[in-house]
Every structure is written in structure tokens, then in C-alpha cells.
Specification:
- Keywords: DNA-binding, Transcription, Transcription regulation.
- This is GntR family transcriptional regulator.
- Pfam families: FCD, GntR.
- One of its GO terms (molecular function) is DNA-binding transcription factor activity.
- The protein has 226 residues and is mainly alpha-helical.
- Helix content is 72%, strand content 4%.
- It has helices at residues 12-29, 41-48, 52-64, 83-107, 110-129, 132-149, 153-162, 168-172, 175-194, 197-221, and strands at 38-39, 68-71, 75-78.
- Strands 1-3-2 form a three-stranded antiparallel β-sheet.
- A hairpin with a 3-residue loop joins strand 2 and strand 3.
- The longest helix is centred in the middle third of the chain and has 25 residues, at 83-107.
């Protein structure tokens, strides 16, 4: 029997392409690049400090996701989307996340709960300092640890990919969101210590509902739907 092939290492070009795609995805979802905006290869490459190649590959990825369209002889343009698209994205994330949270509530160890408490403290410190990048990273670290504690590896992978459509810095830059996130996480940790599955699921669902309201309100204020 042949030995399984060793996966090829991720090239720097692939990594750059993913980073550019993430940047453009967040800009589109936050309304910074509204529908109808042309994404120019050379301008985008210069702004991000990369060559044209990873930008071209990133746009190919976003075309596959339906986020941009290629207009012949004109280039890539941001595709239209609606409130229903936002609702669908959050419905998918909420459905997966609540399933994960129910498992986490019964499977997480005391050490795991202590780690979530420490990560909540780190989030609170970042929020207090108003450091947007640190807030976004602390929030990501909390959810990564929480999702891993459930032992639902495939579901966690699907949730990670669905979460790509959230513009993290839009939330991290909002002081009221930061305060609410810290409060939610502290309540979640307390519910995990009690092994209160229903409360853990409720708190998980409420955080996603809040995220949907904030993003929809932001896009409303920008007049995106008109």
C-alpha cells in the first residue's frame, strides 16, 4: 500500500491571497466597498502593499462566493446583496454555534472554563484600552477556545468559515459592543460552571442576534440598500 501523500505546504502567495480576500470581504460586508464599486487590481495591490497576483486570486475566490462579479472589459465589481443575505449569514452561524455551545456546556473541563475566564479578562482589558486589533484578536481567541471545548471539530470548521463574513473590526471599534461582549462572556462562563445548557445556548444565540442587528443598522445608516 502506498503511503499517503504529504500535503504541500501553504505558499506565501496563497497566504497573501487569503489575506487580501479577507480584507476585501470585510470591506464589502461593512459597507466600505458598497455594491456597484469596481475593485481595481492595481489600486488594491498598491493600497495593500502586495503584487497584483494575490489580488487577482483573491477576486477569483470572492467571485466563487458571489461577493463580486466580473464584467467583461470593465473588471470586478462588488455584487449587490440584501438584508435577507445578512439574515441568512447569521442564521447559518447561529444554527451551527448553538449546536456547538450545547456540546461545550456538557463537555468542557474546569480547566477549559478557567481558560475562558482568563480570555474574557483579556478581552475586557483590550476593550478598556480601546485597542481595536487586540479586541478583535481577544474575541477570536475566546470563541476558538470555546468551540474547541465542544469536541465538534467539523462543526467548528464550518463555523469558522461562515464567520469569515463578519467584519471583526467593525464590532471591535464599537465601545458599546465591547462592553456587551465582555458581559455576555462573563455570563457564559458562569453558566458553564453551573452546566446550564439552556442558558449557554441562549447567551450564544443572543450574541449572534446582537451582531446581526448591529451590522444591519450600520448598513442601513450607510444607505446600502438604496
Amino acid at each position: 500500500m502506498n503511503a499517503p501523500a504529504t500535503p504541500a505546504p501553504i505558499s506565501r502567495r496563497e497566504q497573501l491571497s487569503d489575506e487580501v480576500a479577507a480584507h476585501l470581504r470585510a470591506a464589502i460586508m461593512s459597507g466600505t466597498l458598497p455594491p456597484g464599486t469596481f475593485v481595481r487590481l492595481d489600486e488594491t495591490a498598491a493600497r495593500l502593499g502586495v503584487s497584483i497576483t494575490p489580488v487577482r486570486e483573491a477576486l477569483r475566490t470572492l467571485r466563487g462566493e458571489g461577493m463580486v462579479q466580473l464584467e467583461p472589459h470593465r473588471g470586478h465589481v462588488v455584487a449587490p446583496f440584501t438584508r435577507d443575505d445578512i439574515a441568512d449569514i447569521f442564521w447559518l452561524q447561529t444554527t451551527i454555534a448553538t449546536e456547538i455551545s450545547a456540546s461545550a456546556a456538557t463537555r468542557i473541563t474546569e480547566d477549559g472554563i478557567d481558560e475562558l475566564s482568563r480570555l474574557t479578562d483579556a478581552l475586557a482589558e483590550a476593550v478598556g484600552a480601546g485597542d481595536v486589533e487586540s479586541i478583535a484578536m481577544a474575541e477570536f481567541s475566546f470563541h476558538r477556545a470555546f468551540n474547541r471545548s465542544a469536541g465538534r471539530i467539523k462543526l467548528a470548521w464550518f463555523l469558522l468559515h461562515a464567520a469569515r463574513y463578519l467584519p471583526p473590526n467593525l464590532y471591535a471599534a464599537d465601545p458599546s459592543w465591547g462592553a456587551d461582549a465582555v458581559a455576555n462572556h462573563r455570563q457564559l462562563v458562569a453558566a458553564l460552571r453551573r452546566r446550564d445548557v439552556d442558558e449557554v445556548v441562549r447567551l450564544t444565540r443572543s450574541q449572534f442576534a446582537d451582531g446581526a442587528r448591529r451590522l444591519t443598522r450600520r448598513l442601513d445608516e450607510l444607505g446600502l440598500w438604496t
